[in-house]
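User: Assemble these into one structure.

Assistant: Restating your components, then the assembled model:
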Amino acid sequence: MEIRSGSRRVREQNVETVRLRSMLGAGKVIYPGPVTGKIYEFIRAEILEVNKDDADIMLQRVRKGCCGGSSSPYFDLVL
Amino acid sequence: MGLITGSPYGTITASEDIYLSDAPYIYFQDATASPFFNPDSDGYYWQLSGTATYPVYELACVEGVTFTEGRTLNDVQCDNIGVKDTVQTRDYVEFQTTIKSLFPYTTLSRILAASPATVNASQNTEKIGIGKINNNQFWHVYAPKVYDEDAGDYIAIHVHKAKFVNSWTIEMPYANQWSVTGLALRGFADTTKPTTQQFAVKVRHDPSVL
């Protein structure tokens, strides 16, 4: 779709996003999008709209467990 | 009939030839969250279910784990006879341990009663502040121990409403791993639970025996 921004004609891309939340149990998680470089700021368990290309990579990130414990994901996909 | 060794007559509940060894895993979660079994079919409240809002934290690489309790005891003393009875109340139950794994800080901040962590992946940092203690923060504690991995037999201790109470010490010895000592998770009475399980629940699962 085309929108006007002042006198400039701008083509807005349909950016596909998905909803993620942090699973780290931290007060705040600041995370740069691996593809877009956009900085996402997750406050506790709040849900953020994340670029799908970023999300595909972010969802693969896990924190390895210790002493027989299981690994834990950084982020969770919210449907 | 009684044996020559002196066993009594009548009904005897014999002890089992099963022995536990090694420490349990220890997990904790904000006590605001509901336990996974809330309650189970027998009316017991136990187990954790981590969520993004209430994640479950692991106390990893533990050493010297003990589970104990605190009681107040007052003797009923008659000055003409002596102690006729002891009135006692359970004040708390308590896990005490040392941990060797200090990371991540998201977990350590909870253990040290520090501020919630800020993880900054742009700067590759994780930060916590050590300030005032939040006395309104309570935790569920869940400590399972599998004692027969082939059969899946396990025991678990679930404490409803606990808090890290002791002053901690981070030991930094030469040529040895760091550790956090002095940790105590004290479980207080959770008055929302039935009186018989206000402090904790102990569970055993063993299909071959039970």
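The longest strand of chain A covers residues 17-22.
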